[in-house]
Amino acid sequence: MPTTAPAFADATASDSALRRFLHGLPGVDAVGLEARAASLGTRSIKTTAKAYAIDLAISMIDLTTLEGADTPGKVRALAAKAVHPDPTDRTTPRTAAVCVYPDMAATAVAALAGSGVKVASVATAFPAGRAALDVKLADVRDAVAAGADEIDMVIDRGAFLSGRYLKVYEEILAVKAECGSARLKVIFETGELSTYDNIRRASWLGMLAGADFIKTSTGKVGVNATPANTLLMLEAVRDFRARTGVQIGVKPAGGIRTSKDAVKFLVLVNETAGEDWLDNHWFRFGASSLLNDLLMQRQKLSTGRYSGPDYVTVD
């Protein structure tokens, strides 16, 4: 099966070739990476730019509910919030998407019809990814058949960590083939990959296999999105486009809860990948509670008063 980047066909010809390519990537200077991420996080954002950044961040949110207790009513309420995040101010941007389990995708599709808000569905035995390939592909087919616009898959971290890179690559290819016109986000679960070198390798592996987005985390483990791991992935998509002409999106997910955090990530995007990624077609936040803080900060900028959490809906 072809990859997104024909220029790297030799790199994906065999398990040994893929291993040579991935282990031939430059090693990550962990101290330098974390220092740069910390430095960019100290950038001062003035009032006008802050207002722009808050609206941009709202428009980039994949508003998410991935709980065993999810109900159709909860999904419909989340969809309503995605379309009108602040019912008292219709100038508030809509979120990019609502992200749900496959069995809730049809409910989300119906609730969001005509709104322009996408439906994203996790799949491939999310979050552990521990299932046979045919089960994972059936999971994807169900979500696509229900009308999902985007599929968020998890890689087999066990295969990756044991060096079976071609297995991971071929699984992503198979999932991509089932997506049809739906865009594919490939989740690495960076908190389980242990090293920055592994995160860089996973980023390139996902892009070579045709990911439309690379995504940090499921939000279900102790360490999720961080400025450092997101910076590393932004460097990867920047370098991939420079070599192939193909642009890939990035989605940090899990642990991003405040407007201040979101603005720091937007600075990372601008300073690392560039302005082309400052759009919800290429950058997303996987979040649930983040939207409420962004709305409170937005209200404060527009009214001069801090309304507090009682003035936003509870998810």
How would you describe this structure to a colleague?
This protein has 315 residues and is an alpha/beta fold. 47% of the residues lie in helices and 10% in strands. It is built from 13 helices and eight strands. It has helices spanning 15-23, 30-40, 47-59, 72-83, 105-112, 133-145, 157-161, 165-179, 190-193, 196-208, 227-244, 259-272, 290-303, and strands at residues 61-64, 97-100, 118-123, 150-154, 183-187, 213-215, 249-251, 285-287. The longest helix has 18 residues, at 227-244. The mean pLDDT is 93.
**If you average the pLDDT, what whole number results?**
93
Count of DSSP E strands?
8
Strand order of the largest sheet: 7-6-5-4-3-2-1-8
Largest sheet: 8 strands, parallel
**Structural class, judged by helices and strands?**
alpha/beta
The share of residues in helices is: 40-55%
Percentage beta strand: 5-15%
Return the string of H and E elements. HHHEHEHEHEHHEHHEHEHEH
Low-confidence stretches: none
Count of DSSP-assigned helices = 13
Radius of gyration, in Å, reads 19 Å
Gap between N and C termini, in Å?
Answer: 42 Å
Q: What spatial form do the alpha-carbon principal axes imply?
A: globular
